[in-house]
Amino acid sequence: MTQAPTRAVGPKGFRSAELGWPELDRIPHPPRRVPFLGDVLGVNRHTPLQDTLRYARRLGPVFRRKAFGKEFVFVWGARHTADLADESRFAKHVGLGIANLRPVAGDGLFTAYNHEPNWQLAHDVLAPGFSREAMAGYHPMMLAAARRLTEHWDRAAEAGRAVDVSGDMTKLTLETIARTGFGHDFGSFERPRPHPFVTAMIGTLTYAQRLNTVPFPLAPLLLRSASRRNAADIAFLNRTVDELVRARRADGGGQGDLLDRMLETAHPETGERLAAQNVRRQVITFLVAGHETTSGALSFALHYLARDPGVAARARAEVDRVWGDTAEPAYEQVARLRYVRRVLDESLRLWPTAPAFAREARQDTVLAGEHPMRRGAWALVLTPMLHRDPEAWGADAERFDPDRFEAPAVRSRAPHTFKPFGTGARACIGRQFALHEATLVLGLLLRRYELRPDPAYRLRVTERLTLMPEGLRLHPERRTPVREPVSEPPCPVPGAGD
Ligand code: HEM
């Protein structure tokens, strides 16, 4: 599906929302605005999202904040979000944090403007890489990455040591996307420190977030040394990816992974291929988009499982029942873990790890019959608040309860109330990949370990464009008996659902 181009935003995507909202004055904003600076009193620059959630609770389903002269409209009401999901009137807006990633990811899938031809080309060429068939091909590689995690956790369990959950989930998901996407091994579990690629990547994500917290015209001055470091990080990412592509071209390909598709597949209708520079941008895009978010989702789910023994017992009983004593689950056996999947969904409800997405008006329109918007005006959907809207989720929306995702409960809710993967043509292409990987890993960990939390731990959330539990450590204890993996391939389960 081709997206109609919407009005182009400035090169940095920093056009303030106020330009396109004729009745902006009717939208509430925090009290105590400071001239020029805006709503910055009491703002913690490390937790801008959580600050915004606090304002959302006070100001209601549509509100605005001004930072350094730029005005942003936030939306989280279920009714308003459903309206923004109407693809005939709204499209993705590339702005704020996403636009800040353009120097590194350019017109890669995630950061492409709607009107850029490479979006449609790459989307059409790469979408088959996320088909059911492709996913079944990735499954053994996902299992291999998970085995490296459990070897690491086994050693911690034997020594009675706690594990760094978010750190280990990040290693796991990076190795998984690197292996399944590009046949690459970063050796994350074998290194004492993160791979330099990871350090550079986190550097660019953090820099992109920091750009939003300083007045735009002063950024070159205030962030001079950070900007130099960022340029060096980008150069390092580019060099690493170019080397990876060179090696693939040299060995002739044939792995059938995403990189093969990027290099060899022509568009089914036009015969066009991705240009070399675009391949570089797509590889970086997938390495970044394909692991931080899933790592956060797994970490939050493990936090809730460790904190709630009743939920963990139900999930574990399901894994034991569905997987029996097969050494390693077959592809089809993963989607049968319905309760584990609900645990994951509920974790993504409370902490959608990509916590906002922006939508812009394709033409002059009125949001939810209340707020006029001109063509090109945009708003940020604040997903963690949408997922807590009492209208959709009830008065106990803050409570962790996987049963909210039982089929009848899901059917009884209005559409567009659960949006961790965004919406429409620009929604997450890796959704099935992430859900399969995360359900598989949760199943494997539940089957192998009891997860003992630190009783003093209280959830703290760290922000660097994505969300992650901070300082989460768990004590894994081996359950007995657990069958060891065998080398022959596991038997598929006939007639398994998806
Ligand atoms: C739990 C894990 C994940 C979450 C919560 C998540 C969330 C999202 C969201 C909200 C968007 C839309 C952003 C927007 O509208 O601006 C998105 C887009 C995207 N995601 Fe994911 N994602 C996850 C995992 C993955 C994985 C595993 C991959 C790749 C293997 C991936 C690749 C992408 C790409 C390439 C896009 C851009 C799609 C386009 O515009 O055509 N994501 N993701």
Automatic annotation (TrEMBL):
Keywords: Heme, Iron, Metal-binding, Monooxygenase, Oxidoreductase. InterPro entries: Cyt_P450, Cyt_P450_CS, Cyt_P450_E_grp-I, Cyt_P450_sf, Cytochrome_P450_monoxygenase. The keyword Heme applies. Pfam families: p450. Residues 487-498 have a biased composition (Pro residues). CDD domains: CYP120A1 (cd11068). It comes from the Bacteria. Its cofactor is heme. Belongs to the cytochrome P450 family. This is Cytochrome P450.
